[in-house]
Design brief:
Length: 141
């Protein structure tokens, strides 16, 4: 049964604004770090090699994000990612961050497109990426 990819991120001083809570653009950086970690550790397809050796990029085409409650310096947030749809050259993923007590902090829906970095045009998703991503597809057997 498919399961979400999970990890933790610690809220650092540099993530916070003068109000003492995470400044929302920093969440977008955390989300990208998390996606990179999913490629590296979850799918076993190192993000660096994908870009540098295979010339495959994964730009964000669309992101919608709901911020439900603030996060503060020194908290450890639980991050989860599950794939909602695998298309031809794109996939949709749901990312959630929760506080130490399980409180939802953000929920983001990402649409990421595979591109040939030499042309910056979309390209069909490589078979190995498609296959490994299937392990994280919500509702997949
Ligand atoms: C994403 C694009 C290459 C798509 O180009 P298009 O010509 O529209 O592609 P296509 O028409 O062929 O569509 C390809 C697929 O993308 C989907 N798509 C394209 N645009 C969208 C949007 N806006 N929303 C949802 N889905 C989309 C489309 O439905 C197709 O889906 P499939 O059916 O699964 O194949 C182009 O719109 C683009 O270059 N956008 C700018 C991307 C960008 O600058 N993002 C912000 C920063 S980049 C970044 O953070 C990054 C991270 C990691 C990296 O490796 C590289 C960059």
């Amino acid at each position: 049964m498919a399961a979400p990819f999970t990890s933790q991120v610690e809220v650092r001083f540099r993530h916070c604004d003068p109000a003492g809570i995470v400044f929302y653009p920093r969440y977008f950086e955390m989300i990208n770090d998390f996606v990179e970690e999913w490629f590296d550790k979850g799918m076993g397809l190192p993000f660096h090699a994908l870009h540098v050796e295979r010339h495959i990029g994964t730009p964000m085409a669309s992101v919608t994000c709901d911020f439900s409650a603030p996060s503060r310096w020194h908290e450890r947030l639980r991050q989860t990612l599950e794939v909602q749809r695998i298309g031809g050259a794109s996939f949709k993923a749901l990312v959630r961050f929760e506080g130490p007590d399980g409180q939802l902090r953000l929920s983001a829906t990402l649409t990421i497109v595979t591109v040939d970095l030499r042309t910056m045009k979309s390209m069909p998703m490589p078979a190995d990426l498609r296959e490994r991503m299937h392990d994280y597809l919500a509702g997949a057997a």
